[in-house]
Amino acid sequence: MPAEHKPNAPATPPAPPYTLPQLLDRDFLPHRAKLLDLAAFLDRCDRTQPPSPREGPGEGAPGSGNATTDSAPTDPRLPALLSAIALLTDNHPNRTQRILDALSDPTTDPLNAAPQSPVLGVPQNHAPLTTDH
Amino acid sequence: MPYIDPHIHMVSRTTDDYQRMARAGCVAVTEPAFWAGYDRGTPEAFRDYFRQLTVVEPKRAARFGIDHYCWLCINPKEAEDPGFAREVIQLIPEFLDDPQLSRNVLGIGEIGLNRNTKNELLILEEQIALAVQYNQLILVHTPHLEDKRKGTKLILDALKRNGHIDPGRVLIDHVEEHTIEMVLDAGYWAGMTLYPDTKCTPQRAADLIETYGHERLWVNSAGDWGPSDPLSVPKFQQEMRGRGHAAGVIEKITLTNPSAFLFQSRNGFATQ
Asked: Which of B142, B204, B211, B245 to mutate to test the interface with A (most CBs of A within 10 A)?
């Protein structure tokens, strides 16, 4: 959410120097392409082979066949991505911040030791989707 | 348009990159000490690295008319062993106390957290104390991806606990939409890192400028050995120009703001 007038917050910035039609003329096609890239990525996930028994999150696992419905239960990435996509169309502002919050570790205490697993880009304990996709 | 890249790891970049950056308008770079892609085996390896930052790189940059400054520390990824980390920290004063070696040193950085562990936090607090003791600026690395929001909060708490920190002399780097507000609200400077796959893109950094204004903000490439782009700052300038932003605003973010923050260094800061 944009900063309001808190003691150390910057002054409210002026409105951006462009209109919606100007923005769409300049940036619509690149973002249409990104949407298609995302759709194609999910289709690609659906076509993947089942993972080998020893493959796990962060080890380059390609996922599993029909990943959007039967993704490997131990890999939180695809369910988290699908959950985040839903935030794009909920008609509320600050979509970027809310997606980043949804993809953040919700805990607050420092860890006793560094985890063996690499960062994945989603919380390690992300709950699987319960909705149909 | 002239610009400063206030966070880039030139030890990992080619001389061709210096040339391309100079042609794109780069007048100065500042290079924090960082994880080189592997864990160094001895503290002595850091002494060599600090000499590379304070002696070798300034000469390499000068060939292209670029001023080179640096920051010294042990990075959070190699701070999980406190005994090892403290041996490295003990090397830093010999560089800060030497008039020749300290000439291009701006402060302590990039300190911070990697996986948000207790040992990382312990070493962060000790390096904050070192910066206070030597009246140094601080450049802070915030963690990656899912660890960033939690780590940023832990870092802000650690700075506050020290009790002697002027937020105006600390830059919290790699902010994104979910961390920028807590950093600016606490009075710190914030850096936006322009990366292809993680952190900010030039487009999202321009969005943050439009949302949060022009004060206490800069952009950097953090170019290193991984996926990164040493020309991302001029690409940010191009994005701002394309949106119709005034040249003065673009210059403020990419030249005036970093100059103003860095000028607070004990050794000062000046571009050619």
From this structure: B211
